[in-house]
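Input record (one chain):
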Amino acid sequence: MAKAAWKRPGSPIGRKGPRKANPAYKRRARQPWTPADVSKLKQLAKGNTPTGVMSIKLQRPVAAIRSKAHREGISLRPANRSPYNRRTKAAKRR
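The corresponding structure, as predicted from the sequence alone:
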């Protein structure tokens, strides 16, 4: 019988999920959101926390965080970012 394909030790090949090698969170997909989870999501969103960090802290996939925030009406956009590109005209000419 043929030998299995060569695989480097610790390689993520053959594993499933977004964090293949060492998952920093356990999968809680399709688990109901508790009121404590929603309040934690609001608190993290207010602090301009990136969604990747939120996924680790809430132990949920990024897509689940985005969809729940959308359903609850929570904005995940950073409050300190300008909505338009406001470069000066002199800088554009360079």
